[in-house]
Amino acid sequence: MGLDQYAFKVRPVLTDNEGEKEEREEIAYWRKFSPLQAYMEDLYHDRGGEQEFNCIELPLDTDTLDDLAECYQKLQDREGFFWNVRDDDGSHRKHNEELVAQFIEDARAALNDGWKVVYYSWW
């Protein structure tokens, strides 16, 4: 068990017989990266979310991506149920920060192409 974090690009698709369906494509995956989870959880609550932030899709927009691009390397770890991983040499954090940078680039491209971008996590 542990914290699994995903980002998806999502858009509606019309089908012949079934009406409208959703096309969904994973654009990022993180494992036990508590700084990003803390950021997204705070964003969820800042937007008025009242539930425990677990198994909730959080829509992301350009402003959020801009903010994340400015601060992701300064985000602090946060304790959470099954969130953390031992990272004595900093390699886990460095790897995940590289994934965040790539995610921001991919998410911006998806938004520019008309997709919605959502963050989803579960633990």
Give the total of domains. Answer: 1
Sequence of secondary-structure elements? EEHEHHE
Beta-strand content bin: 25-35%
Radius of gyration: 15 Å
Tell me the distance between the termini. 7 Å
Low-confidence parts: none
The gist of it:
The chain is α+β, with helices and mostly antiparallel strands and 123 residues long. The protein has three helices and four strands, in the order ββαβααβ.
Could you walk me through the main structural features you see in this protein, from its secondary elements to its overall organization?
There is one protein chain. This protein has helices at residues 34-46, 62-71, 91-112; strands at residues 4-15, 19-31, 58-60, 116-122. The protein is an alpha+beta fold. It has a four-stranded antiparallel β-sheet.
